[in-house]
Amino acid sequence: MTDPRSGSSADREALPVELVDESGRSAGTLSVSLAHQPPGRLHRAFSVLLFDRAGRVLIQQRAAVKTRFPLQWANTCCGHPAPGQPVLEAGRVRLGEELGLTAELREAGTFTYRAGDPGTGRVEYEYDHVLVGTHTGPDPVPDPDEVAAFAWTDPAELAEAVRATPEQYTPWLAEVLDIAVRAYRTAGSAAH
User: Domain named Nudix hydrolase: which ranges (predicted)?
Assistant: First the structure.
């Protein structure tokens, strides 16, 4: 049987997301498509950011067919866990689907944001779990339906680029980067 989460972008729009309250407590379900219609419904999401051994982060340019913020640069990957699905599990699955990668992930923090996409009219209103990991394996093998391009970049240079040209980046990237870098530095200093 085929996993319904590995289908096309149109198929993914019909999948359920978990609606949540401002504290992240479950409050029902709705399809991806309906949750992103204006004004947006608060739902659970995750954003993965991988670091390499040199401390660079892996970012991706979202594919042109994405229904929200196409062709903008974002964190390594992101998505929505199925209702009741553990966030770390969902992050690992999505990392494999979008970039053909595996990594041990841990949660670095959460934040809530709302952002409208003027190009598509869709709205992101998400309770976002930031997941971090270290990549030590082979190069990414991106799914072209998900990822237009990828790059490894210095986190400080990326933060400056996001401030200088925000229209090139997804509206959630700055906060994901901030939370992930703080967690990465804390874990690094604890290891020494």
Answer: 41-175
- Active-site residue, 107 included: no
Binding residues: 36, 43, 80, 98, 124, 126
pTM: 0.90
Q: Is 126 a catalytic residue?
A: yes
Euclidean distance between CA atoms 70 and 56, whole angstroms: 23
Q: pLDDT tens digits, residue range 38-84?
A: 999 999 999 999 999 999 999 999 999 998 999 999 999 999 999 99
**How deeply is 23 buried, as exposed, middle or buried, from its count of CB atoms within 10 A (0-12, 13-18, 19+)?**
exposed
The answer to whether 58 touches 73, Cβ cutoff 8 Å, is no
> In the beta sheet, which residues pair with residue 62?
147
